[in-house]
Structure to design on (500 residues):
C-alpha cells in the first residue's frame, strides 16, 4: 500500500493511495491515532472514489462519528486503466438492450461479473487499511447504493468483519442468494418511483436479507433522488451498531 | 373542558380532563407557559389514552422536544361508558369472521364507522386544548398505529392544522380515499411479518398518501413488534417538521 497525495481540511485528513493497481482514498479525523470503526464506501455506476456524494458522506462519517472511511475505484471507473473486457461486455450489453433484452437481467449479470473482481479486491483493501495505525482493526461497516449495492451485497455476504451495512437502489435479481447469507443489521434504501429498479425487485431484495435486524426506508422519487434526511439516518444507523469514536480518544 | 387530576414527575406535568363526555390526558413540560407544538396520539384497539406505550411516547415528546401531547379514549375504550351499538357491531363482526368473512374488510368497515365519531371529537379536542395557555396555537402533529392509523388517516385528511403525521400498521382497505387527501409529511411504519395487516395492503396505503414527502419504514417482526429505534425516529421526524420547543423559552 503506497500513499501518494495527502491533504487536510475541516478536521479531516485525506490520503490517496494505491494498493497494487487499485487506486483508493482514505479519510480519517485529523490527529487520529488509535483504532476506530472503518466504513467502506462503494460508488455508483459511472462514478468514482471521489464522487461528490461519496466524498460528502465520507467527510460526515469522519468528522461527526470519528470513523475511518475508505473508497476505491471499481474496475473500469475513475483512475483505473481502460479495461478492454469490461468495455466489450458493456458494448455487447448495450446492443442486447437495444435489441429488446431485459435491461434488469443484463445489469444483474454484469454486476455479478464485476463482483467476482471487487469482492477479493475490497477484502484486500480492508486488510491493508486496517494495518494503518490511525485506522486499526475496529469494526467494519459498508455503504453502497445502485452499483454499490450490486457489488456490496456479495462483499458483505463474504466479509465477516462487516457488522452493519447500508444498501439500496438495487433489486433481487443480482444478488438474492448472497443477500440471504447476510446476517448483520441492514438499512435498505428504496426509491418508490425508481425508473431503473422495479419496485417489486427492490422489495424482494429487502425480503431476501437474512438479517434479523433490517429496516427498509422507502421514499418517493426517482433513482437519484434519495432525500437528504436519509444521510442523517445513515450516520445514526452506523453509530447505533458500530459506536461513535470520540475525538477525545484520539 | 374540565381538568380533574393533576400530577408531575420527571419534568412532565400530566392533567386528566373531560371534554363533554370525552376523557383525555394532556402532558406538557413542567413550567410551560408559551405556545408550543401539540401532538395528538391515537391509541390502539382495546387500549386506552394511558396505555403504557402511549404514555412512554408522550413523556419523551414532552421532555425531549418540549411539546404538548394529548390523548383521548376512543369510544368504547378506556374510561368511556359502555357503548351498546359498538358492542353489538363488534359481536356481529366476531360472528361474521367466524363464519368466514374477510377479517381485513370487517376491521376496515368498523374503523370507518368509529372514525365518523372520532374525527369531529379529535378536532374539538385540538380546539379546546389549544385554548390552554401552556399549549397555545402551535403546529399540530399526529401519531397513531393500528387502530390509531385507521382513525388517524381520516383525521389527518380532515384537519389542516396537522402538519406532520406518523402512521402505520394499517392497510389501504380502510382509508385509501382519505390517504390520497393527506398532503403533510408522513412517516409510515410497516411490520414485514404483520399477522393482522397484509403486506400488500400496507404498501398500498403508503402508496396512496398524497404527501410529496413520505417515508416508509419497514422492519421484520409481527404487528406488535415495532423496534425501539423507530421511537427515536418518530421524535426526529416531528422535530424536523414541527421544530423543537426549547425549554428556555418556557
Amino acid at each position: 500500500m503506497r500513499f501518494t497525495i495527502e491533504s487536510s481540511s475541516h478536521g479531516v485528513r485525506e490520503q490517496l493511495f494505491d494498493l497494487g493497481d487499485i487506486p483508493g482514498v482514505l479519510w480519517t479525523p485529523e490527529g487520529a491515532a488509535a483504532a476506530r470503526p472503518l466504513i467502506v464506501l462503494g460508488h455508483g455506476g459511472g462514478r468514482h472514489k471521489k464522487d461528490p456524494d461519496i466524498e460528502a458522506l465520507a467527510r460526515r462519517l469522519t468528522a461527526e462519528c470519528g470513523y475511518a472511511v475508505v473508497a476505491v475505484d471499481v474496475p473500469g471507473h475513475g483512475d483505473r486503466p481502460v479495461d478492454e473486457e469490461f468495455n466489450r461486455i458493456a458494448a455487447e450489453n448495450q446492443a442486447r438492450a437495444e435489441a429488446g433484452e431485459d435491461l434488469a437481467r443484463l445489469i444483474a449479470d454484469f454486476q455479478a461479473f464485476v463482483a467476482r473482481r471487487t469482492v477479493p479486491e475490497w477484502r484486500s483493501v480492508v486488510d491493508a487499511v486496517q494495518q494503518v495505525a490511525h485506522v486499526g482493526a475496529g469494526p467494519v461497516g459498508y455503504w453502497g447504493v445502485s452499483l454499490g449495492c450490486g457489488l456490496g451485497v456479495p462483499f458483505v455476504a463474504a466479509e465477516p468483519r462487516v457488522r452493519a451495512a447500508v444498501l439500496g437502489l438495487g433489486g433481487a435479481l443480482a444478488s438474492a442468494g448472497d443477500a440471504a447469507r447476510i446476517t448483520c443489521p441492514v438499512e435498505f434504501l428504496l426509491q418508490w418511483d425508481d425508473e431503473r429498479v422495479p419496485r417489486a425487485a427492490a422489495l424482494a431484495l429487502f425480503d431476501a436479507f437474512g438479517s434479523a435486524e433490517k429496516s427498509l426506508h422507502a421514499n418517493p422519487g426517482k433513482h437519484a433522488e434519495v432525500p437528504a434526511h436519509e444521510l442523517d439516518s445513515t450516520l445514526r444507523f452506523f453509530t447505533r451498531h458500530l459506536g461513535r469514536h470520540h475525538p477525545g480518544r484520539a
Notes: The mean pLDDT of chain B is 94.
